[in-house]
Amino acid sequence: MLITRRMSAPASATELPRFAEFAHRAAAEAGFDAKSMHRIELAVDEACSNIITHAYRGAPGEIVMETRAERGHRLTVILTDTGRPFDPEAVPMPVAGASLEDMQVGGLGLYLMRVTMDSVRFEFGVPGVGNRLTMTKAVQ
Amino acid sequence: MTATPMLDVTELPVRGPDDRRAYYALVGRLDAATSSQLERALNRALSATIVLDMSRLTYVSSSGLRVLLTARRKARERNGDVVLCGLTQNVRDVFNMVGFSALFTIRDSLDEAR
């Protein structure tokens, strides 16, 4: 069974809990455990924060989120925005461990997205859409 | 959960072994919407060491992690430290993912952090 849901909200940090809550519900519908639900919530939070900071750069904008929950199988989260393309490859990846003190903290959010989700894919300039981020995670 | 960003940062009337420590309780979510609140509170702190009771902090994202990392660096410049205590499961999970568990001084409870 596939449950698809969609929401949109202004690209503002004060809206982050709404996106997180929406993702949390979709994760529950897909059948994830509490730990994974929190991790999915975190990935969505970090993704939205990146859009607010890097794509819209604090300017007004909108984030659209679609969730596709396949019960017992997988959750797909698709976030779209019409801000500036944000190249994740330009963000330095922090290295966990001994070098933490000296690490570039800027890449922490992206690092968390990659660690918590199975796949993270960015597309820019999608006709009629703008920027599209697709994240998936399989139910273990 | 509501759309209202929520974090309470409260200085606690706790006495430590000396007057070089300040104690704060963090309640709620430490995310991109609220991390500046903690940053402002910690920037005002004059004590060398800052102890944060996180037993009622339900959520932390990278914005919160950055504030904690900066606070730790500044505290160490004052020959102090940032001591974190009472981490909830979600917060501990994030700390483990980014290696903060090995970096920060972490205690099970506020009592142990005195």
Task: Give the secondary structure arrangement, pairings included.
The complex is a heterodimer of chains A (140) and B (114).
Chain A: E1 2-10, H1 16-30, H2 34-55, E2 62-70, E3 74-81, H3 108-116, E4 119-126, E5 130-138
Antiparallel strand pairs in A: 1-2, 2-3, 3-5, 4-5
Helix pairs in contact in A: 1-2, 2-3
Chain B: E1 7-11, E2 21-30, H1 35-44, E3 49-60, H2 62-77, E4 82-85, H3 89-98, H4 100-103, E5 105-107, H5 110-113
Parallel strand pairs in B: 2-3, 3-4, 4-5
Antiparallel strand pairs in B: 1-2
Helix pairs in contact in B: 1-2
Structure notes:
The complex is a heterodimer of chains A (140) and B (114). Helix content of chain A is 33%, strand content 31%. By secondary structure, chain A is of the alpha+beta class. In chain A, helix 1 (16-30) runs antiparallel to helix 2 (34-55). The longest helix of chain A has 22 residues, at 34-55. Chain A is globular and about 35 Å long. In chain A, 41% of the residues are buried. Chain B is an alpha/beta fold. Chain B contains five helices and five strands; from the N terminus they run ββαβαβααβα. Chain B has helices at residues 35-44, 62-77, 89-98, 100-103, 110-113; strands spanning 7-11, 21-30, 49-60, 82-85, 105-107. The longest helix of chain B is centred in the middle third of the chain and has 16 residues, at 62-77. The model of chain B has no long low-confidence stretch (mean pLDDT 90). The A-B interface holds A 13-18, 20-21, 24, 35, 38-39, 41-42, 45-46, 49, 52-53, 94, 96-97, 100-101, 105, 108-109, 111-112, 115-116 and B 1-6, 29, 31-33, 59, 61-63, 65-66, 69, 73, 89-90, 93-94, 97-100, 102-103.
